[in-house]
Amino acid sequence: MSGPDVTLRLAGQPAGEPGADLAELLRQAARGDESAFEAAYEQIARPVYGLVRRMVRDPAQAEEVAQEVLLEVWRTATRFDPSRGSAMAWVVTIAHRRAIDRIRASTAQAQREQRVGAFREAPPDSVADTVESRLDAERVRRCLGSLTSLQRESVTLAYYSGYTYPQVAALLGTALGTIKTRIRDGLIRMRDCLGVSR
Amino acid sequence: MRVGRPEPHPLTGVYALDALTGPELDRFERHLPRCPACDHEVRDFHETAARLAVAVAATPPAPFRPRVLQAVSATRQDPPLTGGRAGRPPVARWLAVAAAAAAVVAAVALGIAASATQHQLNQAQAQIHSAAAVLTAPDARLTVRATTAGGTATVVSSRSRHAMIITTAGLPALGGGRVYEVWFMAPGRIREAGLLPQPAAGRTSPLLATGLAAGDRIGLSVEPAGGTRQPTTAPILELTVPA
User: Fold this and answer.
1) CATH architecture of structural domain A126-198
2) According to a count of CB atoms within 10 Å of the terminal CB, is the N or C end of chain B lower?
3) Which value does ipTM take for this structure?
4) d(Cα B74, Cα B58) in Å, to the nearest integer?
């Protein structure tokens, strides 16, 4: 049996205050409110861990990085500025950068391990286990499907595999300038398809 | 619609996905504050990327949650930024950084003064370039700390450049061929970051160390000549890299 901290939760049932606004929770957490952070944790832990796990791949390292990210969210919640974007985008941006830090700090190993089949392989453990995230995942998949294959591959290699754009260009055997514009075009299409423009 | 706005820079996409590095990243980050259309687009792309992350959400193993929440209750929060634009560091800091920059350039220049081969020149140039990249990084942070053995260490670190520069003053002289070794320290993982050069007049010239990862702390310890793979003595300095 696991320790007393672990609570059972039905799939899809939101934890903490149902529907609590993440930006508001971060604002409260910024004032040292640990229970507000705990409620924020319920919303951000899965995207953070899922993204980091997918990028870093090694489960132990992924946990380490995800923990660093969540601590950084707590530590710097005081500096979150809602006028600059959504709370989830702020958190995910931190997660992506920290995962990149980890990948690029151990580039030598990473290159050896990832050179082969980094993106042809099935993604690790991306099983969405709540109804909402399954719908989100479905919408993202559909939108990714509306990109050209070059746009899709360059966006996913850069984002999920954490490659620099020259590395993406090398993997796809495409000119640097082409990759730059394909990534931008792909993101514009994704933005419009997902309706996230602010 | 972006009526009347200039077309955003073509690098907004690769920048938003953290796929831009080196001098190109520096140039784009200097350009960004002057380009509202770029800034707007980068923010949109960050929102888009957040959806890509949510789409691969996965539940961490059970012990993760209590561990994080426990760490949270043991972690002090950063103070909020007050006034001015985005917490520009005080002028004194920049003067210190500039002085450190000058010292690095001088040190490298002295090191290659006589009879340098083309290879050495290239290496020196690359080193100056890397050092400059750290010192001019938007997230360069200066930390000055006393060591437990006496003397002080001055560190300029940049997380975005995965690098730091360390100089020291007044450290005790070491006998018996021992050296000061610098470490990158993460929980359960300590990596060599380099050996401090021999001091001249009580100071060591700047050491540039790359491979700094998020969450690393920087350590300094006394080690046998030539350095070791893992510290064999208690560190005389341990500092957290500021965000």
Assistant:
1) Orthogonal Bundle (1.10)
2) N
3) 0.82
4) 26
